[in-house]
Design goal:
The chain is built from eight helices and seven strands. By secondary structure, it is mostly helical. It folds into two domains: 158 residues, Four Helix Bundle (Hemerythrin (Met), subunit A); 75 residues, no CATH class.
């Protein structure tokens, strides 16, 4: 018998396939994919809740999206995810918000957490190898330092470079509000540096107002890991809990 709950699962599987293709080929997860999916997930559960006359079902899509966005935002602040990863994860939270908690009756468990744990477990061996390679080469795993004269449009800075009272300064804090007269580099801009900003930074180096280095975020495509997390979560379940139960003998 066909279940309505299969619809968002199928949509999520198709979505991660498309996101994998665009992320690996063009290094971008388009908004025209993620934004509509967030709306589709929220609206689907609202309509399903009305049809079933169930308030929890009606609000579950919005709650799942909010939980996923909160987790994704923290990951973005830590420098591990790009903006597209956050929006894709939010869309997955809207489409696949909750399921019964393992071994706990009638307790809803956020499905985005299962997707995240499955993604991390699936990609962990690859990340360990990557970390070793970065260590051998003397480079950071999530950040790298390059010369400003070698900057290109679209690179994502890890620090803010701004001008205040005629002085050019750097700022790395993400949690305090910054006041400036002119902004040259903004880590919060998902699309990275514009062509104008790259030119302005190089000009500041030539004028010796800024030292010739900048810390950049290293873009690691996470869509493939999220794709693995979604596939394993839908067809297998929570790998994390299975490991815990296996280790504890429960």
């Amino acid at each position: 018998m066909f279940e309505l709950g299969f619809i968002p699962a199928v949509i999520a599987l198709v979505a991660v396939c498309i996101a994998n293709y665009t992320d690996l080929r063009k290094r971008i997860i388009p908004n025209r994919l993620t934004f509509p999916l967030i709306g589709v997930g929220i609206v689907f559960y609202v309509l399903l809740g009305i049809w079933r006359w169930d308030l929890w079902t009606a609000i579950s899509g919005a709650l799942g999206a909010a939980i996923a966005f909160a987790i994704g935002y923290v990951m973005w602040l830590m420098g591990g995810w790009a903006g597209g990863d956050v929006k894709l994860f939010t869309a997955l939270g809207a489409l696949l918000p909750f399921y019964p908690a393992p071994n706990v009756e009638n307790l809803p468990y956020p499905f985005p957490i299962t997707i995240l744990f499955n993604s991390v477990i699936a990609i962990m061996p690859i990340l360990l190898v990557y970390a070793v390679i970065c260590r051998i080469r003397g480079r950071g795993m999530l950040y790298e330092q390059v010369k400003i004269t070698e900057l290109k449009e679209g690179m994502i800075p890890a620090v803010t470079i701004y001008e205040k009272d005629g002085k050019v300064r750097r700022w790395s804090s993400k949690f305090r509000k910054l006041h400036y007269d002119r902004l040259y580099a903004n880590p919060r801009r998902a699309a990275g540096l514009t062509r104008y900003q790259v030119g302005a930074l190089k000009r500041l180096v030539r004028e010796r107002k800024l030292k010739n280095y900048i810390k950049l975020k290293k873009g690691i495509p996470f869509a493939p890991a999220l794709g693995l997390g979604v596939v394993t979560a839908i067809f297998y379940g929570d790998i994390y809990w299975c490991l815990i139960l296996a280790l504890t003998g429960a």
